[in-house]
């Protein structure tokens, strides 16, 4: 039973593989004919741009021409590989492993299948080889592992990298020679020779250089803020009077004074010096009045204490009388 299944599976693989390969070859030829017509039209348009002096547009359009030319070259190679594999289908069908002489062709088809969306038949061929040789073989070709066997020209032509300035200048000169144009390519050559700076790196440099200019403004704003909250300085004479009052005031009555009331209130820096002087004078006068009130209160308290002591002595509550009562 297993032998019959193997024979049946071989026949199915061979039939499907031949069908997909024939369809891929026919589709590639059709696409190549369309691409040739499009390339001729695009080259003619670029020649018109060069003749009209619109070189910037021609420099942009030439990249699309190079891209189409690379895809066309890759399709030519793939067409040859498909024809080669089609002729060797009986050998592939009879052998379990991939023949060494067919490894490059099969690996190149597997690698190009997801990158050539115009030829969906290549994806069907890839699925057939996945069933035949396993996922490891297919993943090695798709990921370009060492010894995968993928054709280097296929890798280069299907690359998504932008063409170099030399390649673009070469195609523009070929177009100019094809249409017999007298075109001075010195400006274009100089433009392609420039090393254009990365915009992201330039933005980082600008932002980095702009930061130091912002920091001084912030620091100046912070440094300029304290003068607005700075207390006005008292004149020298008022300071001396205040120190004299502090020295002459009794130590027990210091708690009666409120330190917050003594401190001058903060004023804005926009006030004139005359207003600040008047305010300091009024504040020093308030301080003097409070100090005098505190001294008067202290004197009244001491007078009351002396009166109480004399009252005690006059009523006969002296120490000798107290000793007699205790005895």
UniProtKB/TrEMBL annotation:
It comes from the Eukaryota. InterPro entries: Ist1 (IPR005061), IST1-like (IPR042277). Pfam families: Ist1. Residues 206-235, 248-289, 302-327 are annotated as: Disordered. Residues 206-226 have a biased composition (Polar residues). GO terms for biological process: protein transport. Gene3D superfamilies: Vacuolar protein sorting-associated protein Ist1. Residues 258-281 have a biased composition (Basic and acidic residues). Belongs to the IST1 family. This is IST1-like protein.
């Amino acid at each position: 039973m297993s032998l019959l299944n193997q024979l049946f599976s071989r026949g199915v693989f061979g039939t499907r593989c031949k069908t997909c390969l024939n369809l891929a070859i026919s589709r590639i030829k059709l696409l190549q004919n369309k691409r040739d017509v499009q390339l001729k039209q695009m080259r003619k348009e670029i020649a018109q741009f060069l003749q009209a002096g619109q070189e910037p547009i021609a420099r942009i359009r030439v990249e699309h021409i190079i891209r189409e030319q690379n895809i066309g070259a890759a399709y030519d190679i793939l067409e040859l590989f498909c024809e080669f594999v089609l002729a060797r289908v009986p050998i592939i069908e009879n052998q379990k492993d991939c023949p060494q002489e067919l490894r490059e062709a099969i690996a190149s088809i597997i690698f190009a299948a997801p990158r050539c969306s115009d030829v969906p038949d290549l994806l069907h061929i890839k699925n057939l080889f996945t069933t035949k040789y396993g996922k490891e073989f297919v993943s090695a070709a798709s990921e370009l592992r060492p010894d995968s066997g993928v054709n280097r020209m296929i890798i280069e032509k299907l690359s998504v990298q932008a063409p170099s300035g030399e390649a673009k200048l070469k195609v523009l000169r070929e177009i100019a020679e094809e249409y017999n144009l007298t075109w001075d390519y010195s400006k274009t050559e100089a433009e392609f020779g420039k090393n254009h700076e990365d915009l992201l790196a330039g933005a980082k440099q600008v932002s980095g250089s702009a930061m130091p200019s912002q920091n001084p403004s912030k620091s100046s704003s912070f440094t300029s803020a304290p003068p607005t909250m700075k207390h006005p300085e008292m004149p020298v004479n008022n300071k001396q009077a205040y120190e004299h009052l502090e020295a002459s005031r009794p130590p027990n009555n210091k708690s009666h004074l409120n330190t917050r009331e003594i401190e001058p209130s903060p004023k804005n820096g926009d006030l004139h010096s005359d207003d600040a002087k008047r305010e300091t004078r009024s504040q020093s006068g308030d301080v003097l009045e409070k100090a005098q009130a505190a001294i008067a209160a202290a004197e009244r308290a001491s007078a009351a204490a002396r009166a109480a002591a004399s009252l005690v002595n006059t009523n006969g509550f002296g120490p000798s009388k107290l000793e007699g009562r205790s005895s």
